Amino acid sequence: MAEIIKLHVKKGDMVVVLSGKDKGKKGKVIEALPKKGKVVVEGVNKVKRHTKASQKMPQGGILVKEAALSSSKVMLVCPACDKPTRIKKTALASGAMARTCKKCGEIIDKEK
Fold first, then answer.
1. Domain limits of the chain?
2. Rg for the chain (alpha carbons), in Å?
3. What are the pLDDT digits (tens) for 52-70?
């Protein structure tokens, strides 16, 4: 059985690709797949899929869509300082944890 990996990015986060053919490209995380340790990023890692004609798609043909890439190949972009950064967990006064930018110290979002 696959082990669930705690990802450092979430759906909706802005990320930059660190390696591969799309190195340096920025995009928004469309989908996070923690069971596989992968993420799907908008406009990055495009692949062509040949689809057979079906009732939903009577035409069939070649579809171009984003494929998943390893979460270790992306780095979160801080919305405040607009730089790629690592995150650190910070305890808030309410007792909740928040993801914080290591470069500028700005809170990225709250966690449960």
1. 1-77, 82-112
2. 17
3. 999 988 998 999 999 999 9
Please answer whether residues 109 and 47 qualify as being in contact, where contact means their C-beta atoms are separated by less than 8 angstroms. Answer: no
The answer to whether 59 touches 52, Cβ cutoff 8 Å, is: no
pLDDT in tens, 7-45: 999 999 999 999 999 999 999 999 999 999 999 999 999
For 45, which DSSP code?
A: S
Tell me the C-alpha distance between 55 and 58, whole Å: 5
Tokens of residue 30, six digits? 């469309």
In words, the CATH class of domain 1-77 is mainly beta
C-alpha 112/C-alpha 98 separation (Å) is 8
